[in-house]
Each structure stands twice: as C-alpha cells, then as structure tokens.
Amino acid sequence: MQITLDTPLDMHLHLRDGEMARLVTPCSARTFAGAVIMPNLVPPVTDSAAMRDYAERILQAADGCDFRPYMTLFFKNQTRQELETALANPLFFGLKLYPAGATTNSEGGVKNLGETGTTLHLMEEMGIPLLIHGESHGFVMDREQDFLPVYRNLATRFPKLKISMEHITTAAALELLDAHENLHATVTLQHLLITLDDLAGGMLKPHLFCKPIAKRPADRDALLQAALSGHPKLMFGSDSAPHPIHKKECCGCAAGVFTAPFALAKLAETFATHQSLDNLQAFVSGNARRIYALTPPDKTVTLVDTPMTIPAAYRGYGQEIVPMDAGHTIGWSVA
Amino acid sequence: MQITLDTPLDMHLHLRDGEMARLVTPCSARTFAGAVIMPNLVPPVTDSAAMRDYAERILQAADGCDFRPYMTLFFKNQTRQELETALANPLFFGLKLYPAGATTNSEGGVKNLGETGTTLHLMEEMGIPLLIHGESHGFVMDREQDFLPVYRNLATRFPKLKISMEHITTAAALELLDAHENLHATVTLQHLLITLDDLAGGMLKPHLFCKPIAKRPADRDALLQAALSGHPKLMFGSDSAPHPIHKKECCGCAAGVFTAPFALAKLAETFATHQSLDNLQAFVSGNARRIYALTPPDKTVTLVDTPMTIPAAYRGYGQEIVPMDAGHTIGWSVA
Questions:
Q1: Tell me, what CATH number does B144's domain have?
Q2: Residues paired with B110 in a beta bridge
C-alpha cells in the first residue's frame, strides 16, 4: 500500500534557532512543502526585521530542500504600521497569541486579553490570521476547556478574523470549532494517539510531555475521528518541539514532543489502520490550503507501508533530541 | 514554637531491601516509633518465613533505633494455616492487597477480586486488617474513584473486617470513609500538599510522580482539611518510596516520592501554618493506635520551628535518592 501526498504542510512547528534549528529544520523540510513557524524564540520574534532574519536562517538550515516557512509574529498589540511592514514580506503568515506564561518561552505573552482589541480589529481588516495557544492558567487538565469562552468571544466580536485554535486536545474544542464559521484548528500527531495515561499512567514518560497536556481517552478518540473523517476545519500541526535531552530527562522536564521527521509516516499508518487514507490529503494540506489560500512549493511525498524504526535520538550540531516513540517501529515510511 | 509527638507512626512505608533498605530504614527509624512495612519486594513477601527474614533485615538496618516494623504480607488468598502462622509473629500487622499491576512490583497482585472471599472471611474472623491499594486499571485520574465501589462492597460484605484505604487522594474517598464504620484510610504527605499541577502543570517533575497520581485542587484541599481537623479515621502513611536516581530521571520514571526523613518536620510546618498543631498527634499516631490497638515502643520526637534544608540527595551504600522538594528549605525541623 502507498499514498502520494501533494504539498504536505505542518501548520504548527517549532524550529528554535541556532544549532538546534540546523539540526531540526531539515527533519521537516525533507518531507513537508511548508510549515507555520512559531515565534517563541528567546527573545520572541515580535517585529518584521527579526522575522525576516529568522526566515533567512531557516531557509539556510533547510539545506537545499524546497520548503516554505510561513512566518509568524509573537502577538504584542502590533500597530497598523507594524502589521503593514509584516505583510510586505511574502513569507509572513499571521500572529501567534500566547497568554503570558502558558508554555515554553511565552513569558512575554498577553497578560490582558481585554487590551488586544485594536490589533485584532486591524488584523480582521487586513486579513491577517490569528493563531492562539488557548490555555488558561487554571488546573492543567482544564486549561483548554477554561479558555473556550475566550475563543467564542473573539470569534463573535471579530467575525471576519480567521482564528486558529492551535493544538486542540479536547472534544469540547472540537464542538466549538463547528459552532463558529471563522474558527479553525490544528491538532498534533500525539494528541491523535495518546492520553494522560501514556504520559503518567504507567511509568512517567517525559518524552510524551507537552503543553497542552494529553487529555482523556474520550478527547483523544474525538480528535482522531475528526482527523480521520477529513474534518474540513481541522489541520495537521505537529507542534513538534525539540528540546535538548538534558532539558527532558532531568529534575524539571520541559514541555514538547519531537515528531517532525516521521510525522507523515505515522499519520499514514494511523489513517491506513482506520481505512481513512483517502482523507489524509485534506488533513495534511488540503484544508490548510483552502482555509488560508496557500500556494506552497510543488512537492509530493510518497509514503509506503514499509516499516521503519524511529531512532533513539536525533543528533548533530552538538545537539541531541529524543523523539516520541524513540526506538519503536512504525508500519509506514517515506518511500 | 515546638511540639513533642508521642510514638509517631508511619502507617504506609516502603523500605525496599538490600543496600537501599540499609540507606532508608534509618531515615524512618530515627523519628518514627514504628511503621507499616509494604511487602511489594521482588518477589513479594507472601509467607511468614519471608516476612520474618525481612523484619530481621529491617531491624538490623534500623541501626540501633527503637523502631517497630509492623509487617504485612502480600495478599495471595492465604489459607487459615498461613494466616495462623503469620499471627504467631508479634510483628505481623495485616495483609496488603494490590490489584495486579496497579503500582510498582504489583504484577503478582489480585487479578480477580471475586476469588478473595475465603481469605477475607478468615481475616475478618481472626481480626487481621486488610490494607488495599485501591485503584482500577482505568484512566489515571479516575482510578481511585473507579475503585470506590469495591471498597463499599467489601466494607458491606465483611462488616467486622478492618479495611484501610491506602494513600487516598480524592474527596470522594474521604466521603466514603465516613459512610462505613469499618473503613479507615491513610494519606501521604505529598497528597496533602500537591496536585497534578505540581507534577505536570509547569515543568514535568519526576520526583513528584507517584501512584496514585496527585489529583485536583479540590481533592488536595479536602484531604488537607480532614488531616488538619484530626479526622478520627485518617492516619498518616507516608508511602515514602525510594527509587534510585537512575529510575527517576530517565526515559521512563518509576512512581514513588521519598519523604521519610523530613515527613514529620514538614507535617509540623503544615499543621502550624494552619493553626492545627493540636491535631497532629492524632494524625501521626493517636488515630492509628486507637484503630488498631497498637503499642509501639515509647518514643517521643520534638519538632521546632527552626528551618532546615532538604538535601539534594540521600546517598549511601552505593545508592542515591532524590527526595521531594530537594534543596528546598522548610520551616520546621527535628529538635
């Protein structure tokens, strides 16, 4: 069995910077035609000059692969002029809003959502998508659900603003997705597959720890069914996030799961297992292209049901990353 | 401020065996008059000869401290004769029942609770307490609540059997405790203090990972209030469980939090903070002595509000254990 995917897109990706970016960028660029690049560097990417420079570093790191980085700015109540400058860069995609402190390197995020209205009106007017890390500061299992009223409020107040609920993890978020025309969502590979049980039900598995945290079986099942059915508003966004091994296997382990190199193969295996391969194209590219009118570089990737073993670690440039399911064999691979 | 506690008891303690037991036994024996010793060694302590030998090793490891190990047998549908032999040992305390696979070294536990009736009838008749690790095999946050109907059923079917719900973690378990005269419970230090947020709400903290997993704020608050109020059926049981550092800070982290050396100091601080010091004696000894008619060795421990810093690690006999709150300073210490 095999499938050829046109222009696969990863609609939520962390490439970090420096040596780490040199190691992980080709892991995505080899199989994806493009990816939406998160701006939560240290310091975050808040202006167009930093965005341009970061895009250049990514393109260099892509090592000759035809790969389009769809660049985002860290939401900071940008002005009209700042947004216009950003729009002048053809790689600019949208703004990513983090509630302050919600995840890795988000300390400079939005403290008061009430003060974002001016920028959101501008974005609506100028057709700039808003990507949101939608978590409250409440109890870890409730953070996404607690945040849903914020999405609802924004979707209602800014009906022409394209809003993406990033890396959704709950059945409740899926329900909301269907309730507002201008809401869209990404979902990661791991949230289609794991629950809190996989992270902490047996041994504790730091390499399955991410934000938002994996939820209940009913949530995972709902997300998987939506993806398998080709839900037209749901897009693949890996949220693949490399952390050096010493930040994962230590007294305090950073949040983030690394899946980029084998995400398409694992998705193909998952969709094939559920007799849903026909819907994979929509999930990994078609929906995003239609929703955002994207024209990524022509690129096809063929996946076959030939097993591959996920490496114990990805190493290079002085970095070492342990991926999800390190050492496990999956049933599909890139041809 | 200070408090002198008579015969402090730890009603749920893991000492392991060999070099590890030599390192950790004095950590408990220095401040506690006695402790209920868990039988989940490899292989588990299922018969009286193994129990006698294990008790001897513990007494040797106690290094001259006056310390009573209240020994338990791993529940294995023991016969009348096996129970009579156990009762002949004055250190024998009761049977510990593990659902198979529920926690560390419990693979040989009970697979079918329906087949335990004969032994439970004997225990009821012979006055032998039953201690239960009460978790289902369901979703990790629901396991204790899922198990409550089993407690209810046993408490009703065996009204004279003293049943202890070990290391309870939920408000629901507390409610059940009040509903049946023959139900009692232990609670750990960490479950009075932490929630899942402390384990996984920020960075992932392997040294706060235990079974049952820490629950919601409302659960933690209910447990703390019950302990502070001197709830007459709630006993301190640390569930202090040493794991070598390489089994905590690695790809798969074992469940267990090590608190024994400073548990009384931290409890004193906690009770003092809430103006409840008067109820600490009941929680750490009085309730257990009354419930089980225990006569531990005479021993008093005085705690004072002089700060101490929890070591980064406890080392010795080739072992290294990282405790809860390693490197943190707490407000009380042993005088």
A1: 3.20.20.140
A2: B99
